[in-house]
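Supplementary Methods, section 5.1.

A reviewer requested that the exact input to the structure prediction be made available. We therefore reproduce it here, unchanged from the version used in the analyses.
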Amino acid sequence: MEGKGECDAVLIGFESCGKSLLMRRLNNLKGEIDPFTMSTNGIEMSSFVYDKLIFELREAGASMIPSWEQLTSNSLTTIFVIDAEDAGRFPDALLELRALLCRKPSPILAVVNKCDSPMAAPTSSVMSFFGFKKLVKEHQRFEWLFVSALTGMNCSSVAKWIATKAKGLGLGSKKRKTIGCC
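The structure derived from this sequence is encoded token-by-token as follows.
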């Protein structure tokens, strides 16, 4: 199933923006995680449990940029990760985000990662540059969050967003697995 088939969320973004750490954090919202990651080459698959349901994730390494359109077409939702420390990549990220919004009819979440870093662009600058409020008005399926995959800040909100959107979309064609009883 690597790279093919339906998943609940695909994580895309430029190199070193924190996709791998975010995916690791979603797998362990309450516990400690190893903060050291290597650049993802290709596609990494994972899953996480939220509200006793299992959700499937797919992370596309930065080398997969030419395949983003195909990868996002096979997911219920898309998470576009932006590195708050890398303001030099903001113009490229904005172009990719706008292109994604034009071609993808399903829910999209922009996750501004590393927002707690002393090197991060101020939240107001990020909001202004990306025009998030305007994008929400233009694209009702678009939302954004400021997070820190390193500390876990707002990562449970990302998990909740995926779960809410996947449930709202009828969970796709697959049957949802549950954990536990009662």
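The beta strands are 7-13, 43-50, 53-60, 75-83, 108-113, 142-146. These observations are discussed further in the main text.
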